[in-house]
Design a protein that fits this description.
The chain has about 525 residues and is α+β, with helices and mostly antiparallel strands. The chain contains twelve helices and ten strands. Strand 2 and strand 3 form a beta hairpin.
């Protein structure tokens, strides 16, 4: 496939990829600070959270390890709503907590005569469904008649607040659980809530869809450590022949190891405490943003032929650094928004606002990388630098394969999310995140293999015509002794022409870039 066409295809899909990638997840201790209820249909509703929970077994005598606990949950109504009732009235407003598994979502609410679906029971629905008017419509689950689980709380007299009894709800079935606080009383407009709920899995407080990532980051840390040991041993052994590009590769390996290790300890802390401290999570995503930025600039620099067909990036250095700084800021803001605190704090529009810059910058980088790589290959072919050309062809193949794999995976992500709107396949959702880390690691390993430190590293460095002479001399060594003199004479006769061609080529490159 033509490189420019491949670049355009990758860039077009990069914008789509940005909207689907992320590591965000809710904290397992959900805190509510006077959160307002919103009018939805004929009810006032507040989402309390959604998490995948693994069942702790059906033995009632065993200690509870999977549960959802309500702690200090308090509902507040407006003074206007409270003044509508006398001080001695018994029940002056009902608020219900509804906890259900995603598979039972159709057991909440109903529709009268094929009309719009209602959450609260109306007079018509009371006749059809047998529900109680003024309460949430609930039908028992086919698996467990006690579910969906409902907790009722009534305001008394003209009190402004009422507290829900602290209760622990044991989870005996693995699934994606959703919690909603609902009021069907039209007089409770302006209702707010404070308190917290604690969600726990058998292995700790990590949400079920995040738990596998903790083990994944251990494996990735070990993989980066192995690459670091092998690379650094070669780096020390041939330190006199190290190229500038190899120093940047070393930095990317170190940042990758540091990032994977930090993610593991961040998840470990989250699993044991149930919260994600802002400082720790911000530090982790910052290291990740730095690693992603330097990785992309490394690939761009290699594609431009830095240190191979040109000694520096010249006038492009400032543009590359500006693009890197812009990408870092966009990536940092997106990662902080998706990982720091609770993802529910970000609305869809706010997240889209952060995703678009990151996606467009990725698309622009892909275009620039493949365009520069195409020019570098043309230069090497024209100069007949066979050894360098072989390396760059392998690098091109690796990039092309990674782009094709990315495109295929983006398609799978779109299918995965489109066919699972209620996150019922949450147990395998961690693979979506893990793939991009694995792909970045594999591409880094390929770069390490192609530009591994060795005693002949300087042969691949930019040295004017000396680099081309080395390639031709290497080829001449494979010929017979009688051919050596002929090769040498050909080189001496053509050196002036070659130098002129090189200058013209560099001038043309500067014009194009």
């Amino acid at each position: 496939m033509d490189l420019r066409r491949l670049a355009v295809l990758a860039a077009a899909l990069a914008a789509l990829a940005g909207g689907w990638w992320g590591r965000g997840a809710e904290a397992s201790i959900h805190t509510y600070d006077r959160e307002p209820f919103h009018e939805v249909g004929n009810s006032f509703l507040l989402s309390g959270g959604s998490e995948g929970i693994v069942a702790d077994g059906a033995d009632p005598a065993a200690p509870t390890s999977s549960f959802i606990k309500f702690v200090n949950v308090t509902f507040w109504r407006t003074s206007e709503a409270a003044e509508l009732h006398s001080k001695m009235a018994h029940s002056t407003g009902l608020v219900q907590a509804i906890l259900f598994e995603a598979a039972d979502r159709d057991n909440i609410g109903g529709s009268a005569y094929g009309g719009q679906r209602s959450i609260c029971c109306t007079p018509d629905l009371a006749k059809l469904e047998g529900c109680k008017q003024g309460e949430v419509i609930r039908r028992p689950s086919s698996d467990d008649p006690d579910w969906p689980y409902v907790l009722d709380t009534h305001f008394s007299g003209n009190h402004l607040s009422v507290r829900l009894d602290d209760e622990v709800v044991r989870v005996t079935k693995t699934g994606m659980y959703n919690l909603f606080f609902i009021s069907c009383d039209p007089k409770l407009r302006g209702l707010t809530m404070s308190g917290k709920t604690i969600w726990r899995n058998p292995g700790g407080y990590l949400p079920g869809r995040m738990a596998p990532l903790m083990k994944f980051y251990v494996l990735m840390s070990l993989a980066y450590l192995l690459v670091m040991i092998v690379w650094f041993s070669q780096y020390i052994r041939f330190w006199r022949d190290i190229l500038p590009i190899q120093n940047w590769i070393t930095l990317v390996i170190a940042l990758g190891l540091f990032e994977m290790t930090l993610w593991y300890f961040e998840y470990l802390n989250f699993n044991s405490s149930g919260v994600r401290p802002v400082g720790i999570t911000t530090w982790v995503v910052t290291v990740g943003a730095i690693r992603k930025t330097i990785s992309r600039l490394l690939i761009l620099s290699i594609s431009m032929g830095y240190g191979v067909v040109r000694p520096t990036l010249g006038g492009l250095t400032s543009k590359v650094l500006l693009l890197g700084l812009t990408y870092f800021l966009a990536s940092e803001m997106l990662d902080i928004a998706e990982n720091v605190g609770t993802i529910n704090d970000i609305s869809g529009k706010a997240r889209l606002f952060l995703v678009l810059p990151d996606a467009f910058l990725d698309a622009f980088l892909i275009l620039w990388i493949f365009t520069s790589l195409s020019r570098t290959l043309e230069k090497l072919q024209a100069r007949r630098s066979s050894v360098k050309l072989d390396i760059y062809r392998k690098f091109t193949n690796a990039l092309a394969i990674s782009v094709i794999a990315s495109v295929a995976w983006i398609g799978y992500e779109v299918y995965f999310k489109a066919t699972d709107p209620f996150s019922e396949r949450w147990q395998s959702a961690w693979i979506i995140t893990a793939f991009w880390d694995v792909l970045a690691f594999v591409l880094l390993v390929v770069i390490c293999y192609l530009w591994a430190p060795s005693q002949s590293s300087q042969r691949y460095a930019y040295s004017g015509e000396a680099a081309d002479d080395d390639d031709e001399e290497a080829q001449s060594l494979t010929k017979g002794d009688g051919e050596v003199g002929m090769v040498k004479m050909d080189k001496d006769r053509n050196v002036g022409v070659s130098n002129a061609f090189s200058l013209e080529d560099e001038a043309e490159e500067d014009k194009r870039e």
